[in-house]
């Protein structure tokens, strides 16, 4: 029991003026572990330097947090050893075992005993009550400059009793838990460690195996870095395998890592301290059953990140509950919030989630989750497509039940914005559905993406998903779906200037529709054939197909279809120089589109009318028509048509002597063409140069 007399003796252990040894001659505690090979994290080291007690606005604690294996302890130990001279009265260290294989973290009481021992408190002076020990510990540190490293902490409650209160002391805490509570109640600075960027990862690998090896096999070194996902522990394991393997070739290790992709086989071993499965499991085992279930769903992550709504749908949880569970996973540093309401995890944790699924109940749960996730993507994409192109002939996916989660859109702008944000995820969803043998989901998802991919100029992806969709339709043995996929493949091939391939695909589509007796779809095929011939420069053949389309449709019954047929025939008359009939037909077509409320058709027809008026030398009228077309293109997200119209608008402005207007229009066209169509970009630059407006900047 500490008495007034014994406490006075203990206080005699205050630092001597030189700050190197206690006045009593007792040694200064220097408990820091040995430094490990360290590289990178320069910004984090600078941040830690600003927290030294001799700086303005000192902090009593800093929490270094991050996912398992991200290098929290390595950073803390490296910085602490480098800064030890700033704490001349000693450095205390304890591994709190917050995430340890035996599941038994060090209690604050035990840690305090260790620290008080290091501070030379005799056993008979050790208080019996926890609060008394905390008081004695903080009193002994009050006049000292000491560093306290609390490694591998479980939570704030474990740490709080061990924090010094003196201005000259600093506690450095490492934990997988973010410890927001310490920031709120104790003023701790929170330092989040993310995965290493490419340069830092290369620096770590080089530091571990030597620059000569990395330089000798740069491609293999890059592959190793990629497979390790920027996780320092994974890089350390890989480096150790290189150094300890009978075949030390980096290429050999890179091949091993690639062959084990999607699993943690390449990062496992007998030593639990360097086995990623064992290390990840310490965080996973601490989760509730529901949080663990949501974590396992990340094996299904498609795209760069996944939305809260998609995860809620896959887990069959209400949105609010999904948010709460995702917060738990973020706090456990198993996932991170990539941007508001979107979450991701790195490839190695995703592989771990996949391994957890395995067989039995988890596998069955995974199959059901896949269907729910794909249902969410399908019905959301279908709703978005109906918003951006309501006049498109609809398909009939299974009607969503009240339980089916899906997005709803107030207008076409919201739907287009959703597509833009989710398109990578949706493309991967097509691949996921195909890989699971869910052919109806595969085909329907591909159908839902067609309008957006076409308008956004993502034609390679359009062609790719329709190739997948055609294979699904073939497996289903569904004639109508096969015909549709052949036609869509043809249209995407035209965009990619694969004209012969487009002809073959369109003929197959037409043949199938003829077998089915579907006259409307036959008309659509002729429209597609006309477009293909136009792009190949065969305008007379294009006109013949356009006229066949006009003959096949039930004229006037469907305003949008009638408008399309009239505008198509008028357009090819215009390309052949027959401007008067072209003008009459396109004006008729515009009326039908306006009756139908088909903005997409209107945009194309205003372009047709602008082109005709331009070639009739009615330039101001042409400019007005092109501007109308551009307004509609902006509204419906039709990027390619908008660029084409801008290029034509530039020519019309040039014709009336408006050089500034011409340059603005051509630059607007180039902004899109440079991204999606290099040939059109080159043609626009050539036009500018020919007209005396070469692009100089």
Describe this structure in words.
This protein is mainly α and 697 residues long. The chain contains 32 helices and eight strands. The protein has helices at 4-11, 42-49, 72-82, 108-118, 130-141, 156-159, 180-186, 198-209, 211-216, 218-227, 232-244, 250-259, 276-284, 289-296, 308-315, 319-331, 347-357, 361-388, 412-435, 439-455, 459-476, 479-495, 499-516, 519-535, 539-552, 559-575, 579-596, 599-615, 619-636, 639-655, 659-676, 678-690; strands spanning 61-65, 91-95, 147-153, 170-175, 189-192, 306-307, 336-339, 342-344. Strand 3 (147-153), helix 6 and strand 4 form a beta-alpha-beta unit. Helix 26 (559-575) packs parallel to helix 28 and helix 31 (659-676) runs antiparallel to helix 32. The longest helix has 28 residues, at 361-388. The protein is elongated and about 110 Å long. The termini are far apart.
Q: Could you say what the CATH architecture of one domain is?
A: 3-Layer(aba) Sandwich
In DSSP terms (H or I, runs of 4 or more residues), the helix count works out at 32
- Rg from Cα: 34 Å
CATH superfamily of one domain: P-loop containing nucleotide triphosphate hydrolases
Provide the CATH top-level class of one domain: Alpha Beta
Multimerization status: single chain
Average pLDDT reading = 89
Strand order across the largest sheet: 2-3-4-1-5
Summarize the main sheet: 5 strands, parallel
Q: Report the strand count.
A: 8
CATH topology of one domain: the name is Rossmann fold
Estimate what percentage of residues fall within beta strands: 5-15%
Shape category = elongated
Bin the helical content. Answer: 55-70%
Secondary-structure-derived class:
mainly alpha
Distance between the termini: 82 Å
Regions with pLDDT < 50 over 5+ consecutive residues?
A: 12-23
């Amino acid at each position: 029991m500490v008495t007034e007399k014994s406490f006075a003796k203990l206080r005699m252990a205050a630092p001597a003026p030189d700050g190197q040894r206690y006045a009593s001659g007792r040694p200064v505690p220097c408990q820091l572990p040995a430094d490990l090979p360290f590289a990178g994290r320069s910004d984090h080291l600078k941040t830690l330097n600003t927290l030294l007690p001799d700086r303005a606005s000192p902090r009593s604690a800093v929490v270094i947090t991050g996912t398992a294996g991200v290098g929290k302890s390595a950073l803390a130990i490296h910085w602490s050893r480098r800064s030890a001279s700033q704490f001349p009265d000693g450095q205390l260290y304890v591994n709190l075992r917050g995430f340890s294989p035996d599941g038994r973290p060090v209690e604050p009481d035990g840690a305090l005993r260790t620290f008080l021992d290091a501070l030379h408190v005799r056993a008979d002076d050790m208080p019996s009550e926890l609060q008394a020990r905390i008081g004695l510990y903080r009193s002994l540190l009050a006049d000292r400059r000491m560093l306290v490293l609390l490694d591998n902490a479980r939570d704030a409650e474990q740490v709080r009793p061990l924090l010094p209160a003196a201005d000259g002391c600093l506690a450095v805490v490492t934990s997988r838990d973010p410890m927001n509570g310490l920031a709120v109640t104790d003023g701790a600075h929170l330092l989040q460690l993310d995965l290493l960027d490419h340069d830092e990862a290369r620096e770590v690998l080089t530091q571990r195996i030597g620059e000569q090896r990395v330089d000798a096999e740069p491609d293999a070194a890059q592959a190793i870095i990629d497979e390790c996902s920027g996780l320092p522990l994974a890089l350390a394991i890989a480096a150790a395998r290189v150094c300890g393997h009978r075949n030390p070739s980096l290429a050999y290790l890179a091949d091993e890592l690639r062959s084990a992709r999607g699993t943690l086989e390449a990062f496992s071993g007998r030593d639990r301290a360097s086995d990623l499965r064992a290390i990840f499991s310490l965080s996973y085992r601490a989760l509730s059953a529901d949080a663990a279930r949501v974590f396992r769903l990340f094996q299904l992550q498609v795209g760069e990140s996944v939305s809260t709504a998609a995860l809620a749908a896959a887990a069959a949880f209400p949105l609010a509950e999904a948010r709460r569970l995702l917060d738990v996973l973020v706090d456990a540093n198993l996932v991170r919030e990539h941007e508001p309401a979107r979450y991701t995890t790195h490839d190695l944790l995703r592989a771990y989630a996949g391994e957890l699924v395995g067989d039995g109940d988890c596998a069955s749960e995974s199959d059901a989750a896949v269907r729910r996730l794909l249902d969410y993507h399908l019905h959301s994409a279908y709703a978005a497509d109906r918003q951006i192109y309501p006049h498109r002939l609809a398909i009939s996916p299974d009607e969503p039940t009240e339980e089916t989660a899906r997005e709803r859109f107030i207008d076409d702008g919201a739907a287009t914005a959703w597509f833009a944000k989710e398109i990578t995820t949706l493309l991967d969803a097509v691949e996921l559905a195909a890989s699971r043998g869910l052919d109806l989901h595969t085909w329907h998802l591909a159908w839902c993406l067609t309008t957006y991919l076409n308008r956004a100029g993502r034609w390679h992806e359009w062609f790719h998903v329709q190739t997948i969709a055609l294979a699904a339709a073939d497996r289903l043995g569904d004639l109508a779906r096969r015909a549709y996929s052949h036609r869509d493949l043809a249209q995407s091939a035209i965009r990619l200037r694969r004209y012969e391939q487009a002809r073959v695909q369109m003929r197959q589509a037409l043949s199938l529709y003829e077998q089915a007796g579907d006259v409307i779809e036959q008309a659509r095929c002729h429209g597609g054939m006309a477009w293909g011939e136009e792009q190949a420069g065969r305008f007379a053949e294009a006109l013949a197909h356009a006229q066949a389309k006009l003959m096949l449709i039930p004229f006037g019954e469907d305003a949008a279809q009638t408008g399309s047929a009239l505008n198509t025939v008028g357009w090819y008359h215009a390309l052949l120089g027959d401007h008067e009939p072209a003008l009459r037909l396109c004006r008729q077509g515009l009326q039908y589109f306006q009756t139908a409320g088909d903005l997409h058709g209107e945009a194309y027809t205003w372009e047709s009318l602008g082109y005709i008026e331009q070639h009739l030398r009615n330039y101001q009228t042409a400019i007005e028509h092109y501007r109308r077309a551009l307004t509609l293109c902006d509204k419906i997200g039709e990027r390619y048509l908008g660029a084409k119209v801008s290029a034509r608008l530039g020519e019309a402005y040039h014709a009336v002597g408006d050089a500034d207007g011409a340059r603005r229009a051509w630059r607007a066209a180039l902004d899109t063409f440079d991204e999606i169509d290099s040939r059109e970009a080159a043609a626009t630059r050539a036009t500018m140069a020919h007209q005396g407006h070469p692009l100089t900047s």
